Every structure is written in C-alpha cells, then in structure tokens.
Amino acid sequence: MALYSEKVMDHFMNPRNVGSIENASGVGEVGNAKCGDIMKIYLQIENDIIVDVKFETFGCGSAIASSSMATEMILGKSIHEAMALTNKAVAEALDGLPAHKMHCSVLAEEAIKNALKDYFDKNHIPYDPADFPELDHDELHEAVHGED
Amino acid sequence: MHVYADNAATTRVSKTALDAMLPYFTEIYGNPSSLHSVGQEAKEALENARERIAGHLGCQPREIYFTSGGTESDNMAIRTAAALGARKGKRHIISTAFEHHAVLHTLKKLEKEGFEVTLLSVKDDHNITADQVRAALREDTCLVTCMFANNEIGSVLPVREIGAVCKEAGVIFHTDAVQAVGHLPIHVKDDNIDMLSLSGHKFHGPRGVGVLYIRRGIAPANLIEGGGQERGKRPGTENLPGIMGMAAALDDAIANMDAHTAHVTALRDKLIAGLSKIPHCVLNGDPVDRLPGNVSFCFEGIEGESLLLLLDAKGICASSGSACTSGSLDPSHVLLAIGRPHEIAHGSLRLSLCADNTDEEIDHILAVVPQVVEYLRKMSPVWKDLEAGKRQYITP
Ligand SMILES: Cc1ncc(COP(=O)(O)O)c(C=O)c1O
Questions:
Q1: Is A57–B383 a contact, with Cβ atoms under 8 angstroms apart?
Q2: How far does chain B reach from its first CA to its final CA, in angstroms?
Q3: Chain segment B147-172, per-residue pLDDT in tens
Q4: Which residues contact residue B10 at a Cβ distance below 8 angstroms, ignoring those fewer than 6 apart?
Q5: Closest residue by Cα to residue B42 from B61, B24, B17
Q6: Which residue's CA lies nearest to atom 16 of ligand 1?
Q7: Which of B149, B276, B285, B322 has the fewest CB atoms within 10 Å, counting from its CB?
Q8: Strand pairing report for B141-145 and B294-299
Q9: What pLDDT, on a 0 to 100 scale, did the predictor assign at position A131?
C-alpha cells in the first residue's frame, strides 16, 4: 500500500518499544477513543536520562508508527532533549505523513510531554506550565483535518 | 494467499464482461448517432443491451437511461422527483439515515434549496419497515428514496412493501439498488419501484457506467444539457464498451444467481459464525435480511485502519468504516446510524464476498483475523482499560 512511506510501514509493522513499564517514572496518555486514537507513553527516568520507554496505542497505522518512532527518538536521551522533541521531527523521521495524519505525530509529542509532566509532578520538579498547554482533542483534529 | 474480500467496493471485471466490451473499442467503434453502417451497428448493440437490461429488471427498454454509474443515477432520480414535486408545491422527501452519500448529499443540497427531508431511523433493527415509511408520509411528500440493500452492513430493505405504501399514497418511490442488482431478485413492476439506480461495477461489469430506470409517466430531469442521446435526458456520446460489458455481466449474474447465492451465502455464514467467536465483537446489519456476501463486525479496543493494513499484509483485502479510513473526523455514518458508539465504530471491519471466493479463502480469513485483532488489542490502552474494568465494554 502506498498510503504511507516505507518508514511508516516499517514502524507500523514492526513497532519498537511496545508495552508498559511497571512503576514508571512518568506516564502520559492523550487522545480519546471517540476520535479513534489514544496514545499512552511510559518513561523510566534515571539521573535525568530516559533509560526506558514503552508505548501503548489505539489508533491507525500512522498513530502506531508515530508512537514507535517517537519512543525511539527519546530513548537514552535527557529529559531536556525529550522536552524539545517536536511533532515535525517525528513526522520527518518517518519520511513524512499524509496531511490528514499529521495529528498522529502531534499526539506522540503530546503523549511524551504528558509523561514528562507526570514525572515532574511526582518528583516536585518545578516547570513552566506554558510548556504544557492543554490540548483540546477535537480542536486538534479540526486543525489538522480542516473542513473535512 | 491473496483474498479479495472487498466486492462491495468494486468487483473484478469478469472475462465474459471484458470479452463483450473489447469489440466496441476497435471493431464496432462507431458513434451510435452516426448514420453510416459502423454507427448503425453500434446503435443496434446499444439498443440490444438496453432490451436485455430492461428484461432483467422487468421494465420496458424506453424506461432505461444509461448513466455514468450509481452516483449519477441517484442524483438524477432525486432531482427528477424533486423537480416534479416542486412544481406541485410538494417539497418533502423521505429517506433513511444509512443511505449512500450519493443520496444523502443530494438530499442535503435539496434542503438548502428549500426541501424538507425526513431520514428514517435504522437504529432498532439495522433496517426500516414499511410502517415507518407510512408514518412519515405527508401531504407534501414528493419522494421516498430507500436503498435496496446497504453497502456497509448488508441489510436488505423491505422494498416491495415500501413500494406498495408509496403506490397507495401516490408518492414516487426510488431505490438505490447498486448493491442489490445482480445479487438479489428484482422486478421493478412487482416490487412497486418507480425509479431504480444500478451500477455496472458491483456485479463484475466495468465501472463508470450505470443505469437509471424511470417508470414511464415520470418526466426525467436532466442533470446536464447536450445532444439527443438517451432521448435528450442524458446527453453525451454513449459509453458503448461499458454498456456492453455491464449488460453481459448482468446476463451472467442473473443466469447464475441461484448458484452464486447458495455458494456465497454459505461462505458468509461460515465467516460470521467464525468471527463471532472473537470476544467482544458485534455483527452489524440485519442478521436475517442480509446481502449474501456481506460480513460486517465491530471489534472493541482496536482501530479499523491498522486492522486493514495488517490484513493487507497477510493478503486479505477488506474495508472499514473507521474515521481514519473514511478520511474524516467521524466514523461511518452508517455505523453511527445503527447506534454504534464512536468508540467501536472505529473498530469496524467489512468483508464482502463474491462467487469467486473459496472455502479455503474463508479459512484463511478465519485464521488471520482473530490473530490480528488479538495483536492490536495487546498494544491498545483501550483494550487494557476494558480488561482492567476501568472502561465499560459496549458489546456483550
Ligand atoms: C449503495 C450505493 N449507492 C451508490 C454507489 C455509487 O455508485 P458508483 O460508484 O457507480 O457511482 C455505491 C457504490 O459505490 C453504493 O454502494
């Protein structure tokens, strides 16, 4: 199927880091079942380094591929590097996503940010709330889907 | 193994249909409107095809209008009744909530033009009754348009009874029979049908060609203007190869209908029985009055597009009504119309069979689908929550 790039298909067919982490340092979940995609990211953090990351995703091919790619991109990185991960970077690493699937990469970025926020909250680490804007899922969809 | 189970989307052109088409590209390629012999030969073929198709539908050849397919036929039928209604000040139309977009979007446009549309609910039985139609009829109703069979969930509507109700009330009855023609017995007079849409590519004919039957006495409304083809009502040089292929495919479908129905129904029932064993799934559509080839399920905790991609990787071509496959925000309007919540409408799978499918192919599907569903559920946070009791199952 030429719907997706080879990279997307590879990460969809052979997703990296699927699963969960018990007693994870931080857990983030975004999306909702009504819209058809939910991503959950588990982080294991030691000395500010993401030593393990796992994901669970309910969603389409690009949602699964975006989760897989995003987890690969932050594994072994510092939390600051993970904070800087953008949805654009995820989409580019996948050799692009169809326009109406860009929200999948946004979800991946948000899920990671959510997990990091959970980690900061649990450990009373101060952060700038502006780095974690509340995301309305319906709006997000509309923004990327347009009038459809 | 390669299994094509998406015959409701389109079918493979049969050898018979292809063979019937080819001479009209290179040998009898004349324009049926030309006076010379090649043109007249083409004209004869055109009228022969019209007669055969009329014979299969139980109408007169002059009641057959060749179109570019189901979409155009639906548009033209609805526009025809609307124009007649408007002339008498009747601007109310009755239809169902699970029609094809060719019907629904035409009705939406008519609403903007001042028509009122009642969409009958299909929530309870995944079907409608003639009584629902009767109850919705008004003094100013100018059209009832109900599909013969639903393309996504396979429900077959009680068309003859609906037609009788319309006849009694003197209201025009149109049926989008795109999924039914060639698969179910149809006789427009016995079934009380005033207008009927069909499309060549749903019964192993070519795409881009279809028919609108309009009962004599109903004046067709043009969608486009042009020359005198199709009695001036559907102008444009006729797609003769397409028409010949469609007529041959329909000859075939009608001649073999009993055998095909028996074969396909058996495969369908085996597939439904097998897939029903997957935990937390639900069959969509009328379990009894159902197209011979339609299998439609919703699975909890998974999303349809990823399901389709994995099935495709295992050689199975199917379709889904998830939002991601419809290219819009919402899952299929048909699944929502039968009351499926968004959460499980996203996890839908349609397998649509034809006479070419084999028992081995069904075994392959039955081996693969449960595996793939389980695989996707294992990585689904929704499924995990369902299992943990943090989220309520929707299906039994
Ligand atoms: C019920 C129904 N109506 C109309 C159509 C449109 O037919 P066509 O593709 O020939 O325009 C289809 C098929 O796509 C259909 O299933």
A1: no
A2: 33
A3: 999 999 999 999 999 999 999 999 99
A4: B201, B202, B207
A5: B24
A6: B151
A7: B276
A8: unpaired
A9: 87
- For chain B positions 285-344, those within 8 Å of chain A (CB to CB) are 301-306, 309-310, 312-313, 322-324, 327-329, 331, 341-343
For residue B201, give the amino acid letter: H
Average confidence (pLDDT) over B6-25: 98
Evaluate if residue A136 carries a pLDDT over 70. no
- Neighbouring CB atoms inside 10 A of B253's CB total 23
Q: What is the ipTM of this complex?
A: 0.91
Give me B281's structure tokens: 């799934």
DSSP state letters, B167-230? HHHT-EEEEE-TTTBTTB---TTTTT-SEEEEEGGGTTS-SS-EEEEE-TTSPPPPSS--SSGG
Tokens of A18: 């699927």
Residue A51 CB-half CA count within 13 A:
7
Contacts of A20 in chain B (CB under 8 A): 384
Enumerate domains of chain A plus CATH numbers: 6-128 (3.90.1010.10)
Q: How many angstroms separate the CA of residue B394 from the nearest CA in chain A? A: 13
Could you read off the pLDDT of A93-127 as tens digits, one per residue? 999 999 889 999 999 999 999 999 999 999 999 99
Please list the helix, strand and coil fractions of chain A in percent, rounded to the nearest 5, in that order: 45, 20, 35
Ordered structural domains, chain B, with CATH: 3-9+257-388 (3.90.1150.10)
In what order do the strands lie in the sheet containing B172-176? B64-67, B210-214, B195-199, B172-176, B141-145, B92-96, B116-120
Q: Which residues line ligand 1 (CB under 6 A)?
A: B 69-71, 74, 100, 102, 147, 151, 176, 178-179, 199, 210
